[in-house]
Amino acid sequence: MTILDHIEFSVRDAEASRRFYEQALAPLDIARVITVGPERTRSGGTRHGFGKDGYPSLWIHDNEAPGAGTHIAFATNERAVVDAFHRAALQAGGADNGPPGIRSRYHAHYYAAYVLDPDGTNVEVVCQHADSIP
User: In the chain, where are the structural domains located?
Assistant: First the structure.
């Protein structure tokens, strides 16, 4: 298992960046897996997810200034680790950006917590397994 689940960052123009990444990442066998329309996003912009084997590990979105909306998600197999991360990150001075819990808008087993680091980067830890219950 990799330590990273996914990375997301904002771009000026989601469609121009989509075209760029589709072409630039093709030699790596990385392709666009999914597009999420503005009506289903936090920022109201379009999101494109790229990856291998049908899983989007790189996300780009527009409707936020480039640099704003930077997001990194770490993967774990245990929901208790999500809870521990959230507590530790808050104790370390992070700002709560979403307490541990199911994020059903992604899928029924997406258990995650979000904290903003000192520079405002949205740091997430996510467990995507149904059999790990807090």
Answer: 10-61, 71-127
Among candidates 51, 54, 47, which has minimal Cα distance to 9?
47
71-127 maps to CATH 3.40.1490.10? no
Tell me the whole-structure pTM to 2 decimals: 0.70
Helix (H) or strand (E) holding 94: none
pLDDT digit string (tens) for the chain, length 134 residues:
578 889 998 888 999 999 989 997 887 788 999 999 999 888 899 999 999 999 999 999 998 888 777 899 989 999 999 999 999 999 988 899 999 999 998 999 999 999 988 778 888 999 999 875 44
Helices (H), 26-78: none
